[in-house]
Amino acid sequence: MSESLETKIRQSGGPVPMLRHTPGGAHPFPIKSEHSNWRDEQASWKETAVLFDQSHHMLDVTFTGPDAHRLMSDFGVNSFATFGTDRAKQYVAVREDGYFVGDAILFGMEDDKVSLVGGGSVHDWITFQAEQGGYRVEVTRDESTPLNKGRRPLYRYQLQGPAALKIAEKAHGGPIDRIRFFRMGRFTVAGHTVRALNHTMTGVPGMEMTGLELFGPLDEGPAVLAALLRAGEEFGLRQGGAIAYSTTALESGWIGLPVPAIYSGESTRAFREWLTADASFAGRACLGGSFDSADIEDYYPTPWDLGYGNVVKFDHDFLGRSALERMAGQPHRRKVWLRWHDEDVTRLLAGGLFGGKARTKYLQVPYAVYATFHYDTVRAGDRVVGISNRTGYTVNVGGWSSLAMIDEADAVDGAEVTVVWGESDGGTAKPDVEHHVQTEIRATVSTSPLA
Question: Can you give the residue ranges of the GCVT N-terminal domain (predicted)?
Fold first, then answer.
């Protein structure tokens, strides 16, 4: 029997030491790193279109049975008043005291069938609740390709950019019925029926159907992919690799993989005892960055901190509702974009390569996240006002930026803050962390996307 997450935490001296010293790096995207070059691949999702193969890196857990929708409603902050077949939502779950457990895209596949697709702890959390609560559902778990001992049943392709609809229509051979945002539709490509979710990974304001996630049976994937690539030639479609894919959230604003509130507290103890450490996301994850607190609770966000305040709906009973109702009128942190100062980034790049014994933490271009949970301290003067999460460069921004959660009072357009880059005491023993010294980077706050 593998040890439980609770046992691993106890043997490690607590959740923070466990996460700090677990070997690992950023969440992997097991696809080709580049198809042309990551700069042009980044530019394409704003100027023409890009196609990403999402068939490999995400976990897909399906819940089938008469209680599938009730299960999701009982543990999701989202409204389910209009949810059903061919609808989707950014599903968000919290623990009893309102702190964030996880998120994923929830697909309404059929009247009694839903799928959670993404990466993180929410899949395990809902599976646990289904088992413990006696819900009438069958759970089918399809692991990401690196962890999958069998064969994945579906392909997933993301077609993204202003030319996405034109490319899809050419591949289809005619007009496609318009699909409303976060709804699904069907059309044919290469003689095969594809299901398409209308959602965007990077954001092109004011344009219709600029992001389509296409999926279907795995065996049909190569023919569909080839047809899309042929159709996209005249529109400047590029196939995107793992490097460009890792930077998409810098523009869209999705704060991916914050620390889930499951590593402490009596309300989640049974979950930690149920969860195996070596076979779960929570047990394999690692923590990095300059934000350094011995109390794991200091790392837990609320839905508002992550920009999910708009999806919290009190039209149904769900775990954590009472706590969120109390929190609703209180100050929160706010999701913002931080534009790092070019001259400081230049200094940091040089310091990581040529700093000798005083070198700074290497800034990997274009995506510098080096842990599953990346938390860098953000300061306004001498005050700690939040944390910086994903960080990197895109040609569409034209510089280095990061996503952050900072106190509402400091979330003002044009405000100046500093990001502390590098870990304390020379860094931890993670393989991706070399010995280094900390430094500070100036950044400018923006409450709207930089691209």
Answer: 33-255
